[in-house]
Amino acid sequence: MMPWDGVVEFVAVAQTESFTQAASRLGISTAQVSRQVSQLENRLTIKLFYRTTRKVSLTEEGAIYFRHCRQVLDGLEEAERAVSRLHHSPQGLIRMTAPVTYGERFIMPIVVDFMAQYPQVEVICELTNKQLDLVDGSYDLAIRLGRLADSSLIAKRLSSRRQYVCASPTYLKQYGVPEYLTDLNQHDCLIGTNSHWHFDEQGKEKVVKVQGRLQCSSGMTLLDAALRGMGIVQLPGYYVNDAIAQGQLTVLLAQYQQAKEGIWALYPQNRHLSAKVRLLVDMLADKLP
Length: 289
Known about the structure:
Oligomer: single chain
C-alpha cells in the first residue's frame, strides 16, 4: 500500500461530512471511498471518523490528521498550479466565514460573481458574528470588521468603514442631545457585542463604557430600536447612512468620531494561500465599497 492511499478520500469525507458527497466530488463510488478510508484507518491503527446512519464526524485523532493532510494537499495543489498555470482557471473548494449582515449585503454578492466567473470553484461560507477558529475549522479565509485581536493570522485590508453615534429626533427631543462623551452616562444606549465605545478625543483614543436596556448582536435590531426612539446607537455607516440622509437619525458627538476602521481578509499563517483564495481576496478588495 502506498503512503498516500486513502488520504484524498479521507480529506473529501472530512470536508463534506459525507461518504456519498465525497464520492460525488471525487467521481468514484461510495464503496470505494469507504474502502480507502477503512484501509487508511487500519494502516494508521486509529479511528478517523465517528459514523452513524445520519452523520459522519471526525474523531479527535481524525481532526489532527485532517489538519496536517489539508496543509500537504494544499501545498501539492499549489505546486501543480504553479507548473501547469492552472491559476488562470481556479478550481476546488473554498471554506470561508464572514459576519452575518455585512456578509449578506456585500461579501456574498461578490463571492457569487466570483463563482460565476470561475465555474469550477466551490464555496462553503458560514455567516456568523462569532469569531471562529480558522485552523480548527479548516477555513481558508475569514472576513473580519474593525479592530483585530493579536493573533498568528495573516491579514489583508480590503476596505474600510466608519462608526456613527446617532439617535432619532424623537429620542433627542425627549431626553436631550449629548454634547460630551461623559453625557453618554445619562442616556439609554443600544449595545451590540461590545459595551465599550471607541472615540477620538484631541488625537487620543477614548474608550467609554456605555449602558442601556437593550444589548443584541444584531445590528439590524439595534438600528430598528434606534429608529423607534429607544436610545442612542453606535453602528457602521452601511447600517445608518440611509436613515441619516432621510432625517430619521441624527449624528451625535461628531467631533469625537474616530478614523475609519479596516475591513480585513484573514487566513492562517501556516496554510499556503492557494491561487483561488488569492484571486477571491483580490476581487473582494477591488469591488467592496
